[in-house]
Model the fold of this input.
Amino acid sequence: MKVRRAQTNRPLATRRRQGIRESIRKPPRQGNAGCATPEGEDVVVDTHAWPRPVERDYAPTGPLSRLAAHDRPREKLGLHGAASLGDNELVAIILTKGSRRQNVLELANQLLIDVGGVPGLPRVSFDQLRGLFGVGAAKAAQMLAAVELGRRTFFKLTELSPPLLSASEAAAFLAPRYGARGVEQFGILLLDTRHRVIRSCVLTVGVLDMSLVHPREVFREAALGGASALILFHNHPSRDPAPSHEDVMLTQRMVQCGEMMCMQVLDHLILADNRFFSFRESGMLNGSAPTAAWDQPPHEAVTP
Done:
């Protein structure tokens, strides 16, 4: 069989791109009707039409380079500061790049829609983020690390923390840590004799139940921490801080046990994002009168 090719000195990809047609001499063959192809007939093969490109179900999206320099997130941050950026632009900087279908700004917009906006970021899990199209494990890790770093800036304690004198001050301390958790968590905030924070700890995770939260665990942790007073707290993932009947019964039980242990239970706070419910302020702390402030701790002695 003789093969005749046109301009064989060019690469195959170049010949296909330019649409060069190649002629191949093939031997005689029998057709369906019994007639033979004549000897030496030129069979023309269009190498430009094969292989065909893969059909895609989406249109390519323009890159950020098409935007003006002052509209790109990183350049905008450098010119005007981080406060001038929108939520999607901040997320885009964390993600660093987009996907095959979307540029990084469009991917950031879609991510915020899927998780319910910025308030949903502290609630989303690693697996949920990784499952979103265009995110993957690396971008999910970057996003959760940035959220956790931002959370820690709110509750980094100084060496000597100021005393907590009211429910609102305690809620401001606890809400950044536990207010936006995706599952219900019960814990205690340990205070010293001057109502300064010793530490906080979570005792149970899951549905709050009197059988799961035992006074023995609560006051043993408080005794080991050297606390003289404590604040009970738990969060409501439903974002409604209203107490349930189980919350009321649990609070009364803990207050009674605290009186027997000579350890004061100052309050029980229910956290729901940036809102909270205080049993003491509502007058439901074992029949105590409603009050916005706790009993004042003793003042420090002033050395001359």
